[in-house]
Amino acid sequence: MKVFAVARTAQAASDAARQRALDALHTALPRVGVLDRGVYACDLRGTRRLLGAPLEVARRIVELCERAGATCAIGVGPGTFVARVLADQTPLGETRELAMDARAFLAPLPVATLPLDPRIVDELALMGIRDVAGFAALDRGSVLDRLGRAAAAAHALASGMDDLPVHGVPPRRRIRAGRRFDDAIGSKEQLVFALRVLADTVADRLRADGLAALRLVLHAEREDAPALRLERVLLPPAAEPAALVRSLRWALDELPHRSFVSAGTPGDRHALGRIEAAAIEAVEVEPLRGRQLGLFAPDGAHAEEAIAVAQHLRGRLGAGAVLRARVQSPDARLPEREVEWTEVVA
Amino acid sequence: MGSVATVAALDGAIARVERRYGSRALARGASFERRSDEGVLRTGTAFDRIAGGVPTGAPCAFVGTGACGKLALALRAVAAAQRDGAHVMWVDPTASLDAVAASHAGVDLDRLLVVRTRRREDALTSAAAALRSGGFRLVALDTGPGLLASSVRADDVAPLVPLVRGSAAALVVVTDQAPRRLALLTFRFERVAWERELGRTTGWTFRVAGARGAEALFHARSYPRTLLDLGVRGELLEASA
Fold first, then answer.
1. Which of A26, B64, B105, B213 has the fewest CB atoms below 10 angstroms from its CB?
2. Residue A113 and residue A82 share a domain
3. Measured between beta carbons, which residues in chain A are less than 8 angstroms from residue B107?
């Protein structure tokens, strides 16, 4: 028997609290999907023996979410749509299970409850159809012909045919490597060298799970200053240690420099301060894509690095700095008409 | 193999580095045989016979006054670098790169990234980023005529030297003035003669001096924009004798 629980968190809940709630759901339930921002669907099929009755599971979900800092309302029903509508009607902190037929439950509700385009809702209103029952009474074929595929899907929901599956999202992985240094590091080059080791560890974990880092964060604890946090987006996403280190080096290069006070000091003084500990974390990942091997063009395998450099330089130097030429008309009378210059990265 | 004391000192140093940065901070390099053609980019011209080609893993300078052919040969080097599908970066502070001439020289413009910067620091930063990334087979830095105090000079590329050393990339600095303080492998270009037709300049002949006095001769034509390889001077003299 199909049983779904939909958890609706409070609108005032922060993104961090919502993420914690989602992480908590992942630890407790086998399949958790995200329907919307702050709305999570849990597939409870086959869990009665292990976890108990659906309402009991729903109450525990409420407790889990509250411990994570996000109050939620739970609706339990035979389909995700019905459970979501039920959750919308339930006050925060409470749970409710559908006690009647799904079609009968939806019947008195306004037609706007269904996932319909507002123009179709207006068109139905012109036809005198204002509630779900009236919409469900229409012929399905006619709805498809006149209003389209989306309206036909909404008509199925109105008729109590809710086959929408829960697309489980993978639990958030925390891929992090850190180290505390015996002697504080005061030089950017030394820090980059130390980060190579951490990048190797993070890259190993990424590759073991078939993932590539999309966003990296560098945390650095400093002796004489507040902790440093640098965030970089890797485009394209990468799992190679060299790519991770390169991105972090660029982030460090963009920190402001301090001028020297005493002569003879090496040219590496930076706004870094003295680093006591450092950690790299891949906060956003995606599945690792294939990479051009360059069997017939051995050096062509480095195209991604070239594009990454172009993106970095464009961000640093501004628009119009990194260009590519295209010969338009080699015999043109005016030199400016011979060649067209375009940006490598728009 | 060194003495016992040397080996012990080395082990101690390795242990200190690993204690500070982690057990994976150092790795032993595997020994391998480097193929003789991996260390150079062959342009397919007489330049290869006098210099072996454009060296990779070490910076070099093409030095000469204006209109002496250094850019023409640099473009041939770019085409050579792109032969196996690689990308090339051309740092162009003076925005003077002739894309049509590059196309005639066999350069794939889709794999040529041109960076136009005004500031010396930005030009060097761009070249450094390209060399560090490992994504470019050749980085060319055209310093331009060097008329301004803020122009890039050959000596300014000193910070790039450690980035090139040991890498598979080549760094070619095209400049009017030879470096004074930096020891770069330098190839001097000198215009030998102008070619004129009907009172108009249509081309020029230039020579490139390599080690041991050998010279390669080239002829550059304005229209169509082509570069003719005239061979090595010594060979020409022998052939004409």
1. B213
2. no
3. none
What is the Cα–Cα distance from A17 to A38, expressed in whole angstroms?
A: 10
| CB proximity list for A53: less than 8 A, separation 6 or greater | none
Domain at A149, CATH number: 1.10.150.20
Domain B36-188 has CATH 3.40.50.300: yes
The answer, yes or no, to whether residue A97 has pLDDT greater than 60, is yes
- Separation CA A118–CA A191 (nearest Å): 56
Q: Show the domain range for A56.
A: 4-99
Of all residues in chain A, the one with the smallest CA distance to B129 is A309
A188 and A275 both lie in a single domain: yes
Note whether A111 and A146 are same-domain residues: yes
As a whole number of angstroms, the longest Cα–Cα distance in chain B is 78
The CATH number given to whatever domain includes residue A47 is: 3.30.70.270
For residues B106 and B82, give the distance between their C-alpha atoms in angstroms, rounded to a whole number. 9
B-chain residues near A326 (CB < 8 A): 99, 109
How high is the ipTM of this complex?
0.77
Domain parsing of chain B, residue ranges: 36-188
Chain A hits for B112, CB-CB cut-off 8 Å, are: 324-325
**Nearest-CA neighbor of B155 among B141, B165, B169?**
B141
Contact across the interface for A324 and B132, Cβ inside 8 Å: no
**Contact residues, A window 163-202, toward B, CB-based 8 Å cutoff:** 179, 181-183, 193-194, 196-198, 200-201
Looking at the domain assignment, is residue A326 inside a domain?
no
- The answer to whether the Cβ–Cβ distance between B21 and A242 falls below 8 Å is no
Task: Using CB atoms, pick whichever of A196, A305, A317 lies closest to residue B135.
Answer: A305
For the stretch B190-229, pLDDT in tens is 988 888 888 888 888 899 987 667 888 898 888 777 888 8
Contact between chains at B25 and A326 (C-beta distance less than 8 A) = no
Nearest CA in chain B to A313: B126
A182 in any annotated domain = yes
CA A206 to chain B, closest CA, distance in angstroms equals: 17
Residues A181 and A283 in one domain: yes
**Mean pLDDT of all residues belonging to chain B:** 83
Contact A277, A179 (CB under 8 A): yes
Overall domain count for chain A: 3
> What is the Cα–Cα distance from A144 to A139, expressed in whole angstroms?
9
Distance of residue A200 Cα from the nearest chain B Cα, in angstroms: 8
A283 in a structural domain: yes
Q: Tens digit of pLDDT for each residue in A122-166?
A: 999 999 999 999 999 999 888 988 888 889 999 999 998 887 777
